[in-house]
Fold each of these.
Amino acid sequence: MMGHRLRRWITEVGVLGILLVALVTVLFPYFWILLVSLKPVDLVSRPDVWLFSPSALNWEEVLLRSDVPRYLANSVLVGLATVALALVTGAPAAYAFSRFNTGGGPARFAILAAEMMPPAVLIVPLFLLMYRLALLDTPLAVIAAHSTFIIPVVTWFLIGFFDEVPRELEEQAMVDGYTRFQAFYKVVLPTVRPGLAAAAIFGFVLSWNDMFYALILSGGKNKTLPVAIAGYWTFRGIEMGKMSVAILIAIVPVLVASFFVQRRLVKGLGGGAVKF
């Protein structure tokens, strides 16, 4: 009996130790960035200094005397607009894949081709198209670019949620006089509302984190936050204190969004797979 308890105790301690190491490994970079953001300017380049008087100078410079708040607003605008477009187009597409098996199994995987395609393949035609339309250095150019990989992901994400809605609900609604679209809009969509919210958050995070398309298609006052963060790497060196502040501002929405989407993320990503 004592031996069993001892083995159980050793197992629990080992598991807790592994979890503690994993937790420290994950959280330490965030702690380090926070530490650098609070260092006086003359100590930022000395990572060996742990004892110092915290200073809010870097935060004041970034929040009050720079264009980072504008770039933050640009990222929010681009993310929300892209997600809205992805839901408007992706939800009906996912419904068609789920209910009518449109295109069969190959079509389900084909919708992810844009996501798996290297961005460098799409950037040249996108750049030329935006140039012809005089949309370079505007949020619309970045929204169009982000839509190329967020719409397929949102569509794939929602297929599994539509698959779980009983067909009898729509059939009963159509017996009561609803058209197919009315049954979709008034019956099915409210049922998959949690999936829509999870897909929206996941799409927003993808748009929020992108720097490649935003770097090439936007500039000046229309830059997004990731591009602005990269701008602190100058010919004079890296402005570590200010960059750390901007990074913290950028990761907070991602962490909050990930907290709400984590339970449905695996289900959504795997839901579009072909079922045999």
Amino acid sequence: MHQKRYEGFLRTPCLWENDSLFELKQFEIKSVLKKIDLSIDSKLRLGKYIERFVSFQLQNTNSISVIAENVQIQQEKITLGELDCILKKNNQPIHLEIIYKFYVYNPAVGTTEIDHVIGPNRKDSLIEKLEKLKEKQLPLLYSETCKPYISELGLNTEDISQQVYFKTQLFLPFKNQNIKLKTLNNECIVGFYISKNELIEFSECKFYIPIKKDWLVIPHPNVDWLNFQAFKVVAEAYLQQQYSPLCWVKFKNGTITKMFLV
């Protein structure tokens, strides 16, 4: 499963290009799919699990050398934050923050394209994440507390550029899948989302609910599909817990796509 998840990770595009959003510069890397041959603790939460994929990707790219990963910045035993990765790309030192998100596009939230992008459980949003990066995570590098850590790596803070590696799977409303994004990358759109009230429209479909790490996987037919009635029972249990499951939906014509039930 590591391999299928890694392939899904590699094929997930970045949410914007260059530095077109909040002046946050997207990290650029070209990779070919390789057999992943590192051991990963399956108990890692998804964010940390994906960081192991990024580490593997970086270490298998000729122009890149990884200097340090997961650098905990502490002051009097209190952790102020963490630098995800310090690397050199073509000898240029870079502080890289790694983000992989699942978002739904809800035109009813906020007034701008960025405002409309929120978490499927409504517990987070793109704008909140961008502000946290801009105001808290990236400025940490330039703090006095951070200087000794950077010096230990043989680097000067002033020489380090900051970039983000921000990959996203984005889901549009089922009834409005013709939305064209102007600022964000349309290639991030991988499926749609529906509410419980719309579920009846899928009564002739089959369903599969992957575990969270398999949210990365590109849908394929070789899984144990649920019929509509069985899926409704399982889905209701998720919704009772205020949790929006990601599902694979197989239509009668054999087409398979990803869907959030929100």
Amino acid sequence: MIIEAFEFTLKDGRKAFVRSPGDEDIPEVLDYLYVSSGETEFVLRYPEECGKYTWEGEKALFDRVNAADNEAMLVCFVEGKIAGLSNIAWSKGLKTRHRASVAIALLREYWNLGIGTRLFEELIRIAEDNPQILQMELDFIEGNSRARALYEKMGFRIAGVKPDAVRLKDGTLLNEYSMVRKIHREA
């Protein structure tokens, strides 16, 4: 699904631009995936695992997402550089099409500027515009208090825990928490 591009002002006064991804973004997205993987333990990949991402693979992903009617990807740019990505997707299956899965990740230099909030507002708008979606879902890793605070601010609540779901290189085991945000609709 192609989203309508939009701009907004960051807390520091700079402008951010958000749109669906295109082929011209692939080299920078590949770099973003690598850099974001090394900035925090809360992304589900290490930088050395990013070799599996290729230009052809990202092109296929972008083409599929942009043509889909049940998913969208948002790329946020600040001063022409990718600041972060977010996405939303939902099943076409009769029993699960009411559930939309969302995810977001920003490069560290763009944390605390209002980007996460604005991207979530757009993901919520997409979900609310689809009458079949009744809830949005996401997961976060134990210790990611910044993300949890954002998710709670956006109306998500913890619905479950997967004990020891993530194992770091040093052997540390971390829980993964599932969160849900209900979409309230008029009866």
